[in-house]
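User: Is it possible to get a 3D structure for a protein together with its bound compound? The compound here is zinc ion. I've pasted both below.
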Amino acid sequence: MATTDRQATTLALAHALSAAERGLAVLPLSRTKLPALRSPHRDDPAPALCHGECGRFGHGVHDASTDPSRIRALFAAAPWATGYGIACGLPPHHLIGVDLDTKPDTDSPAALRELALRHLFTIPPTVVVITPGGGRHIWLTGPPDAVVPNSAGRLAPGIDIRGAGGYLVGPGSRTRHGTYTTAPGTAHLTPASSGPPAAPTRTASARPS
Ligand SMILES: [Zn+2]
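Assistant: Yes, that's possible. Here is the predicted structure of the complex:
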C-alpha cells in the first residue's frame, strides 16, 4: 500500500509537471481532491487573510505554480498527494472548467447543447477530462479581461463552472473514487475558447444597452 501510494505520488508529480509545461499552474491534491497541504494559519486565533505572502505552503489554489522547482517542493512537502489541481482563471490560458455532472435525473450534456443553441456559442475541440464518476470536465479559455467566477447549477442543472479561485482535478490524478483521464483524442489539444469563430471584439462594439 505504501509503495502504491508512493508510485501514485510520483505519477501525479509527473502529470503535474507536464501540465505546467503547457502553462497550467498546478498544486498537489490528496485522495479527497482537496489541496494536500493544510493552511499554516489553521491554528491562528484570528484567521489571516494570507494568500501565500507569508512564504509558506498551504494556501490552497494560491500555492499553484508553473515553476518546476516550486512544484517539486510542493510535492516533497506533501508526499501523500496522489493527484494535482489546475488553477483556473490564470494567464496565459485563463482556464474555465465546464463540469458536466452525471446524476441519474439530469442530462447535463443535453442541457449544455441547448444552452449553446440558445446563446449561439459553440463548444470547440478542446481538452475533455473524464471523472471517475463518469462526469466530464470541458476545458475552455476565458476572456483575459473578465473574471469568470465559480458557480454551481446556475447555467443549468448538472452544469458547474470552475473559474477564478477554483481548480480542476488534473488528468492522471488518483482519488478515493478512481482516476481522472483525458477523453480519447483530446489529450494533445490546448484549451480553446468557446463562441462564434469570428466574434467582433467586445470593446469595439457600441451597442445600446
Ligand atoms: Zn500565509
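Residues 1-87 form one domain. The chain has two domains: 1-87, 93-195.
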